[in-house]
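Contributing new complexes? Match this layout with FE2/S2 (inorganic) cluster.
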Amino acid sequence: MNPDDKVCLCFHVTRRKLVNWTRLHKPKVPSQLSACGGAGTGCGWCIPFLKQIFRQETGSAPADGPALDALSAEEYARGRAGHVAAGMGTPPPGAEPT
Ligand code: FES
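Output block (do not edit by hand):
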């Protein structure tokens, strides 16, 4: 995933925006990243990746699961489509197609 790829597809929040927001606001817990454009408050697919960004930027424990750097934007979007199709989350109205 590149900096300008969207991590939260539901709310169109890019990786760059999340990284910059985290550096600026210094959140104490990963869930505070939801204050960055509502990231993570839709289907929930991006939550593990928000945690990854939090951990990378705050120097806390290493993230588990596939790293954002190892995924293309297309792979990431396919993963999210599978997440939604499996009934694990519902995107908000107007969100990018699944
Ligand atoms: S992709 Fe972030 S909440 Fe759906």
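Reviewers usually confirm one structural detail per submission. For this one: The two ends are 18 Å apart (CA to CA).
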